[in-house]
Amino acid sequence: MILTRRTLMLGATATLAGCDRLARNPSFREALFSAENFHKWAQRSLMARDALAQEFRADQISPIFRANGTANPNTPAYKAYWRNGFADWRLKVGGLVARPLSLSLSQLRAMPHREQITRHDCVEGWSAIGKWGGVPLRTILDGAGMSSRARYIVFRCADDMGGGRLYYESIDLTDAFHPQTILAFALNDRPLSVANGAPLRLRVERQLGYKHAKYLMEIEVTDSLRAIGRGKGGFWEDHADYDWYAGI
Ligand SMILES: Nc1nc2c(c(=O)[nH]1)N[C@H]1C(S)=C(S)[C@@H](COP(=O)(O)O)O[C@H]1N2
Ligand SMILES: [Mo]
């Protein structure tokens, strides 16, 4: 609930006070921040979704960037990748694209990249500041050539959340093209550790921690989230009613 108020207060204007009241109602809230309806609300609310997240100074970096959720996928497939330094790992990019891609870590590292010192906010109530290095998601999507039907980017991960259900998340094209949305392979000038999502994880700086998919395996460009998991666009959205839009 606090989360939703924060989202509304930071993202919108005083004219949304009535909306804020409504947003405390759980079923209205679920509708408002679902993938299906969020864009309609955002368009009407003058919400500046292209604004940059705050960046910090190097001396503000947290001494330890704690790990949350999966800290090691520990599957036979992931262990095999890890054992040889992720040399055989590939990021697949597919779905509604002209040119499906399969990118190695060294190919990703050779692309133009970006560094940013940002604060990660987890819904469970902790934050950490870290310096991330990686390739803008936009560069990858431009390389693959998205169809004009594209509406969402789905991220599929290597970790099993139980019963063979792998972690997944999704964002819309506004966040996909945001300049601070990167596929990060470095944290605090070191290769990403297993705990923090090696070899590659999403940083989507205008949203809460659970949107930042770790252990990336596959990116799928799609026009609908209906066929992904249970249809709400992410593992926690499907299994714990988290909002699909988790703006901060
Ligand atoms: N694949 C995967 N990505 C994930 C998670 C996870 O369990 N698996 N947890 C999420 C949550 S809730 C948070 S807060 C961040 C934690 O990132 P960190 O471990 O680098 O702190 O990763 C997010 N991405
Ligand atoms: Mo989180």
How is this structure best described in words?
- This protein is α+β, with helices and mostly antiparallel strands and 248 residues long.
- The chain has one domain: Oxidoreductase, molybdopterin-binding domain (Sulfite Oxidase, Chain A, domain 2).
- Helix content is 27%, strand content 24%.
- It has nine helices and ten strands.
- It has helices at residues 2-11, 17-23, 26-32, 35-44, 76-83, 105-110, 137-144, 173-176, 235-240, and strands at residues 91-95, 101-103, 114-121, 127-136, 152-160, 166-172, 182-187, 190-191, 201-203, 216-222.
- The chain has a five-stranded mixed sheet with strand order 2-1-10-5-6.
- A hairpin with a 5-residue loop joins β5 (152-160) and β6.
- The chain binds ligand MTE and molybdenum atom.
- The ligand Nc1nc2c(c(=O)[nH]1)N[C@H]1C(S)=C(S)[C@@H](COP(=O)(O)O)O[C@H]1N2 binds next to β5.
- Residues 68, 122-124, 209-210 line the site of molybdenum atom.
Taken from the alpha-carbon principal axes, the silhouette is globular
Please give the CATH class: Alpha Beta
CATH level 4 superfamily? Oxidoreductase, molybdopterin-binding domain
- Record field, number of beta strands: 10
What topology, given as strand order, has the largest sheet? 2-1-10-5-6
Elements, N to C (H/E): HHHHHEEHEEHEEHEEEEH
Quaternary organization: single chain
Number of domains: 1
The largest sheet is:
5 strands, mixed
Uncertain stretches of 5 or more adjacent residues? 1-15
**What is the CATH architecture descriptor?**
Alpha-Beta Complex
Mean pLDDT across every amino acid position = 91
Helix coverage percent: 25-40%
